[in-house]
Specification:
The complex is a heterodimer of chains A (about 300) and B (about 300). Helix content of chain A is about 45%, strand content about 10%. Chain A is of the alpha/beta class and about 300 residues long. In chain A, strands 2-3-1-4-5-9-8 form a 7-stranded mixed beta sheet, with helices on both faces. A two-stranded antiparallel ribbon of chain A has the order 6-7. In chain A, strand 8, helix 10 and strand 9 form a beta-alpha-beta unit. In chain A, helix 3 crosses helix 13. Chain B is of the alpha/beta class. In chain B, about 35% of the residues lie in helices and about 20% in strands. At the A-B interface, helix 7 and helix 8 of A face helix 3 and helix 4 of B.
Chain lengths: ~300, ~300
């Protein structure tokens, strides 16, 4: 195992960079990482499945910036690469994990959807960790930590979410419930899967509800940071409906949407929106490409995970 | 001491030993103290550690799992064993898996206690013994108490394991006395009965009757660890006699008897007579006599043993 690669997270995340550069670095890192995954699939170098977050990168970048990552807990879902990379920058460990290598974040056991690193947990079951996020927040409340759980518009069909909301409010758990609403659950459009309002869903539980419709990392950060502060100071949960876009397929090649519709969504690409704000985007992009090439090369050579 | 008192004392001592322990479940608060009174007095003594929950079995197990992942020992109570189906995703897809799928970097000290069993006329959704559906899940330990071994000690063992445990109690057993002396061991018994949980009492009564009336020696071997199954214990017990019976309160197919048979046959132990005694394959009727007819009973066990001679 490469010692240097184990400790690269602060650098990968651009911790020392100005915020704007850091945001762009992370947006590009997530995008290029996932583009590389799809390429590996196409070249038959990758087995299993993957769910890319293309179009939703700004959510991960902005929300991780708003959290205190040394103590807060993050609970993610099947579409978790962006959250994971912005949480810890462990691109090498994530490649190795998805490639089924012993050196992966979970030793090749969890793969794309089941990741754990420090206080980061993800599950492939929709809403499956919602109640656990509440319990963990209660357990760590005296340390000033909060839980942040990511769900999608498709997750709104799961009863586990509403049980978790009830508990979070009754027991005053400091939890940020984030619904990344990309308007489509696999192939089912929101109109066929979600009745009523996503924004107001937690209101009846006595939980503050917020709505942001943006793919702009700065806008999202400005909206989220005060919500996180409020959760921490009040010790109460909050609900955030975050309208975003899914630029890629649900998984690998299963996009049933009209091409012109997806082309329209491309105008809201969070990377395109952000590129003009940094002084040297080419350098940041180059850094990401070099980094991804470097860690992937190492991960590909790592020992394949197996039972013995 | 009665079973309910042993379990209660055990909860108190677990809490005393680790004051960060959390107990949660429906209707746990005093003076009610839980539907079957196992937690009575606990919320008065430890108000910060006992959480009464909404009717939300998946939610309460999930909340418990989250706490356990962050280092707490959590004992969750599901009021009726039948309601365990509502917790299945949390137990099978999450609690049981977290340690392994996260490469052994985490664990969850989560005990889910629940009473199974009929005999009280509660009908199809409050009387079942459905623990077999949770046995054989990698990462989930399933234990079952009986009043002839120490239920309190078993609960302490479950809480000390550090990994998820489904802990099966039994409604009619709560008021029974703990009587370890009634388990009798023989070098070469005429028959061996492997069993667990609430019906252990029926087996012991059958064995006592068979000895007194027929001079037939029957060794009853209760199994406290259902899953993973303690192969050594099962094989050693089955090797003692050429008549081996299993008794379980749930329905027969894919059940305890089948698991015992697999365990002993694959070890090359082939008793002359092997028989599983279990509930009839129907839902549990509310009508009292009908319910007793379909469940295992002292008479049924006694008749089956006699018929094997």
């Amino acid at each position: 195992m490469n010692e240097i690669l184990q400790n690269i997270d602060a650098e990968v995340l651009g911790a020392e960079l100005p915020r704007t550069d850091r945001f762009y670095r992370q947006l590009v890192l997530i995008r290029r990482f996932e583009q590389k995954l799809l390429e590996l699939f196409t070249n038959n170098l990758l087995a299993g499945t993957t769910h890319t977050s293309m179009g939703q990168e700004a959510n991960a970048v902005a929300i991780m910036e708003a959290l205190e990552l040394d103590k807060d807990m993050v609970w993610s879902n099947h579409r978790c690469h962006g959250h994971f990379l912005s949480y810890c920058g462990q691109s090498y460990r994530l490649f190795a994990e998805i490639l089924g290598r012993r050196t992966g974040a979970c030793g090749g056991r969890g793969g794309s959807q089941h990741l754990h690193w420090r206080n980061f947990y993800s599950s492939g079951i929709q809403g499956g960790f919602a109640a656990a996020a509440v319990g963990a927040a209660l357990a760590e409340k005296d340390k000033g930590a909060i839980s942040c759980i990511f769900m999608g518009d498709g997750t709104m069909g799961e009863g586990a979410v509403y049980e978790a909301l009830n508990f979070a409010s009754l027991l005053s758990a400091p939890v940020l419930f984030v619904v990344e609403d990309n308007g489509i659950a696999q192939t089912t459009p929101k109109e066929l899967g979600v009745a009523g309002s996503i924004t107001d869903r937690a209101k009846a539980f006595g939980i503050d509800c917020h709505h942001i419709a943006s793919t702009d990392a700065d806008d999202i950060y400005k909206g989220v940071a005060p919500i996180v502060d409020q959760i921490r100071s009040s010790g109460r949960p909050a609900w955030l409906h975050l309208e975003t876009v899914r630029l890629g397929p649900h998984s690998k090649g299963d996009d049933t949407r009209d091409e012109t519709y997806v082309a329209e969504l491309q105008k809201r690409d969070p990377l395109v929106l952000y590129r003009d704000r940094v002084s040297d985007p080419d350098a940041l992009e180059q850094w990401c490409d070099d980094h991804i090439a470097e860690v992937l090369e190492v991960a590909l050579k790592d020992e394949v995970a197996c039972a013995s | 001491m009665r079973v309910v008192e042993e379990l209660r004392d055990s909860l108190f001592s677990i809490m005393q030993r680790d004051p960060k322990t959390i107990v949660l479940g429906e209707d746990l608060l005093d003076p009610y103290g839980g539907a079957f009174k196992v937690t009575q007095g606990l919320s008065d003594a430890y108000p910060d550690n006992v959480i009464t929950t909404p009717i939300s079995e998946a939610g309460l197990v999930g909340v418990g799992l989250g706490m356990a992942l962050r280092g707490r020992t959590v004992l969750a109570e599901i009021m009726f064993g039948d309601f365990l189906t509502l917790t299945t995703d949390q137990l099978v897809n999450h609690a049981a898996k977290v340690k392994w799928m996260f490469n052994d970097a985490v664990d969850a000290s989560l005990v889910v206690r629940t009473p199974m069993g009929g005999g009280r006329g509660y009908g199809p959704t409050h009387s079942q013994s459905i623990e077999k559906h949770f046995c054989g899940v990698p990462g989930l330990t399933v234990m079952a108490v009986n009043q002839f071994q120490s239920p309190g000690e078993l609960l302490k063992q479950a809480a000390g394991l550090g990994s998820p445990v489904l802990f099966i109690e039994n409604k009619i057993m709560y008021s029974k006395l703990v009587e370890p002396d009634r388990l009798v061991s023989y070098d070469r018994p005429d028959a061996v009965i492997l069993t667990y949980g609430g019906v252990t009492e029926f087996c012991v009564q059958s064995a006592e009757r068979l000895l007194e009336d027929e001079e037939i020696t029957v060794e009853v071997v209760p199994v406290q660890h259902l899953s993973p199954m303690p192969g050594d214990l099962i094989r050693a017990a089955a090797s003692k006699s050429d008549r081996v019976f299993t008794v379980e309160e749930g329905s027969e197919s894919w059940g305890f008897g089948a698991a015992v048979a697999e365990e002993i046959l694959s070890a090359g132990i082939a008793p002359r007579h092997f028989q599983s005694i279990a509930a009839d394959p129907t839902a549990i009727p509310s009508a009292r006599n009908w319910e007793l007819e379909i469940l295992p009973s002292v008479d049924k066990i006694e008749r089956a043993v006699l018929a094997s001679f």
